[in-house]
Structure formats: structure tokens, C-alpha cells
Amino acid sequence: MEYSYPFSIDWSTEEIVDVIKFFEGIEQAYEKGIKREVMMAKYRRFKDIVPSQAEEKTIFREFEEASGYVSYPVIKQAKEAADGTTIKVAPKQRR
Length: 95
Description:
This protein has helices spanning 13-31, 36-49, 53-67, 71-80, and strands at residues 34-35, 86-87. By secondary structure, it is mostly helical. A two-stranded antiparallel ribbon has the order 1-2. Helix 1 packs antiparallel against helix 2 (36-49). It is globular. It comes from Lysinibacillus contaminans. This is UPF0223 protein AEA09_14260. InterPro entries: BH2638-like_sf, UPF0223. Belongs to the UPF0223 family.
């Protein structure tokens, strides 16, 4: 699929790369599954870059509009799961 990842011009190159890796983790959770620890590490790094809840929601919405992947169900499942769990979100939760 061809689409652009959301990012801020205020971010460094490293931060942009890390945000892209986070969204690749979201994609992986829908497509084949991702280990909870891996997804949570990507999310923690994302939150270092985007600490604001409002900005997070805006970026999640931009990503959903571009890709069709909804980030929230992945993060919710990852937060609730035990270590060692594979996070796999059903396609019905995808736009």
C-alpha cells in the first residue's frame, strides 16, 4: 500500500524514523501480529516524541485516514496483555 506517514516538521530525523517504526508496528499488529513487548517499546518511544494526548489523537487520525489502520485498538490490547503475548487485531477493527 502506498501512503505517507504523519510527522511534524519540528521532529528530528531520528524522531521521524522512530514514529514510522511505531506505525509499522501498528500495521504488523493487523497483518501478522507483534509481540506485546515490542509494540509497547515502540509506543513508549512514540510517547517520548508525542507526549500530548491531543497531538497523539490527531496523529492517529491522520494515520488512519491515510492507511485505514486504527491505532487505538492495538495500543489498548497491548496495554491490557501480559508480556509474551502476541498482539493481533482483527481486520474488522480496521477502517
